[in-house]
Amino acid sequence: MKKFNKSETKSIIIIFCVLFFITGFNLSLSLRRGRDSIRKNDISAIQNSLDTYLQKYKTYPLSGSNGEIIGCFSGGVQLDPISEKPTNAEVCKWGQSKFEGVNFMPQDPSFKKGASYFFVSDGRKYKFYISLEGKDEAEYTPTIALMNLHCGTKICNYGRGN
To answer: Which domain holds residue 89?
Structure first.
């Protein structure tokens, strides 16, 4: 069996390096797009839960100062007899709390790096913000990024609301 000479060995190493670089880049891009897709799906799931909350209590849950949803209940729901709105709503914890048909509130796929979702509501209207990693995403919204809302350690750049 014949061995490779130096130039053939160099050529093979260069080809493998190029293939590893391209594969690594595509894998990184696919993982980023997957995380952004999860974020968009999470918003849709929470919007469905918010609509359920609205149907039950005739209001949207309020928001906390750090962008949390104040609409979870550790015990039974206590309603104000006049307004029929909940009086004992608590802050929902991302990734832990149960909220209107969702067993666990979703949390940003990069929560270990400090990323989070951001919710704003006055009871009549709401906006839900996330931070997409890809600036090339069709939904990336520079005007939201200019609002300088903090989705954890990231700046929010995409949102949905009613």
So the answer is: 36-161
User: For residue 161, what are its two tokens?
Assistant: 């609301």
Q: Which residues contact 141 (CB under 8 A, 6 or more apart)?
A: 157, 158, 159
94 domain-assigned: yes
Task: Please report, for the domain that includes residue 62, its CATH number.
Answer: 3.30.700
d(CA 90, CA 61): 10
pLDDT in tens, 73-111: 988 889 988 888 899 999 999 999 999 888 889 999 999
- Residues in contact with 109: Cβ distance below 8 Å, sequence separation at least 6, in sequence order: 35, 38, 39, 115
Domain tally, the chain: 1
* Residue 28 lies inside a defined structural domain of this protein: no
d(CA 128, CA 121): 9
* Distance in angstroms (rounded) separating the CA atoms of residues 154 and 148: 9
Q: Is the pTM of this model over 0.70?
A: yes
pLDDT at 37 exceeding the cut of 80: yes
